[in-house]
Write a structure and sequence with these properties.
Length: 480
């Protein structure tokens, strides 16, 4: 128990030192958009004018918030091509839930309660089918073609089969494969022809802002992850914001809130986690329209630069018709699992030795890595990452060519800790090779605090490390 501020400060510092966070290296987590959370954007949320307003404060005390929320909503409408925004949802998944409920109420208003089928491609984010199920919809999965795109024939056939009962389809654009699919307008047209609505998952908006708008493509509703594209820090389960945008015909069916005389709330507060909205608002204001568009261009450029540098070492799983990716790319490391037993975990752990947070693993394709650099990373940092990935490929080659043992090598034994170094060293590679591979930063090296843990075992076996409640009985309570 910490009873001294000095100890508490040191405890927090220790935790921070163990963390491999954005203040130390790029976090190339595909689909997560781990971009810069600029200090200038974050400062206002600590101001009492923003942080000490109660969500249910009377409106005559929240005029500033109303102005901020109104202006941000207008900007988000301009960016997405939608006609209104609901700021209730606190996450992307909650936005999906709110958006599907909105669609559900729209169908009910038209006397079509039987419309409950939701078409979802097999590559969709897991939250998509989960949200549809939570809204009482029946999920019908649409297959993918070998190139990763939605199988248009299968989509058309399933839309035909369920025509009378279609509520919606949920698509992601650019797709979760990091590709601008060519048939997105056609997909919207097919659903509309069958009387359904299009839910476009807007989590990948970082590839669209300023260049294309979901509302123009044919979608009826989307959530926007403000904690991805619009700079709210995320990870670790902190508050997020997943507002939804809708076309005008859906406005009457948006979630209401008792606080403003409505019903159908999806969130406790009328504007969700309003206290973090100043981050997204100041991001938009400081970037300006041209700046936001330039950010999108650089995000796409950075992803394509990585794909181009890595493609000779690792196949890039999917690309569009012109051979380009969108704002992220999937590198296929599955062949190594077959040939030398090096799997996606091994490469992820080795990247930690190199000083990088690993990319997204085994999603949306099992056994692969999905890399998203965002516009925030410099060429130097992106090159450091590519150098690390290329060096790991050469380490795998050593195993392939039998120059090093299949299990006792730097990739299989990653990550390496300080205690590994000071103990007896009987490995067929040097201490330097273990701890200072390409990309690692000399004296500023990140030292992993632990060796490899058995993730699957940990996930399946509950281990409680908290003291039993009896332990608290003997703790003396300080007298007031
Ligand atoms: C992140 C993400 C979501 C879910 O957003 P949360 O805020 O994590 O609930 C949904 N779809 C896609 C494609 C995503 O990347």
């Amino acid at each position: 128990m910490n009873r001294a501020e000095s100890e508490m400060t040191r405890y927090m510092r220790r935790l921070a030192d163990r963390d491999l966070a954005l203040d130390r290296a790029m976090i190339p987590l595909g689909s997560c958009t781990m971009k810069l959370n600029a200090t200038a954007e974050m400062l206002p949320i600590s101001w009492p004018e923003f942080s000490e307003i109660h969500p249910f404060a009377p409106t005559d005390q929240t005029a500033g918030y109303a102005e901020l929320i109104g202006d941000l909503s207008q900007k988000l409408c301009d960016i997405t091509g939608y006609d209104a925004i609901s700021m209730q949802p606190n996450s992307g998944a909650q936005g999906e839930y709110a958006g599907l409920l909105t669609i559900r109420r729209y169908h009910l208003s038209r006397g079509e309660p039987h419309r409950t089928v939701c078409l979802i491609p097999s590559s969709a984010h897991g939250t998509n089918p989960a949200s549809a199920q939570m809204c009482g919809m029946t999920v019908v999965v649409v297959g993918a073609r070998p190139d990763g795109d939605i199988d248009l024939d299968d989509f058309r056939a399933k839309a035909e089969t369920h025509s009378a009962n279609i509520a919606a389809c949920m698509i992601t654009y650019p797709s979760t494969h990091g590709v601008f699919e060519g048939h997105v307008r056609e997909i919207c047209d097919i659903i509309h022809a069958h009387g359904g609505q299009v839910y476009l998952d807007g989590a990948n908006l970082n590839a669209l802002v300023g260049l294309a708008r979901p509302g123009d493509i044919g979608a009826d509703v989307s959530h926007l992850n403000l904690h991805k594209t619009f700079c709210i820090p995320h990870g670790g389960g902190g508050p997020g914001m997943g507002p939804i945008g809708v076309k005008s015909h859906l406005i009457p069916f948006l979630p209401g809130h008792p606080e403003t005389g409505g019903e159908g709330a999806v969130s406790a507060a009328p504007f969700g986690s309003a206290s973090i909205l100043p981050i997204s608002w100041s991001y938009c204001l400081m970037m300006g329209g041209r700046g936001l568009t330039q950010a999108t261009r650089v995000a796409i450029l950075n992803a394509n630069y990585i794909a181009a540098r890595l493609k000779r070492a690792y196949p890039i799983l999917y690309a569009g018709r012109n051979g380009r990716v969108a704002h992220e790319c999937i590198v296929d490391v599955r062949p190594f699992a077959k040939s030398v037993g090096v799997n996606v975990d091994d490469i992820a752990k080795r990247l930690i030795d190199c000083g990088f947070h690993p990319p997204t693993m085994s999603w949306p394709v099992a056994g692969t890595l999905m890399i998203e650099p965002t516009e925030s990373e410099t060429k130097a940092e992106i090159d450091r990452f590519c150098d690390a990935m290329l060096a790991i490929r050469e380490e795998i080659r050593e195993i392939e060519e039998g120059r090093i043992d299949k299990l006792n090598n730097p990739v299989k034994r990653a990550p390496h800790t300080v205690s590994d170094l000071i103990g007896a060293w009987e490995r067929p590679y040097s201490r330097e090779a273990a701890c200072f591979p390409a990309g690692s930063l000399g004296i500023d090296k990140y030292w992993p605090p632990v060796n490899r843990v058995d993730n699957a075992y940990g996930d399946r076996n509950l281990m409680c490390s908290c003291p039993p409640s009896e332990a608290y009985a003997s703790t003396p309570v300080a007298a007031e």
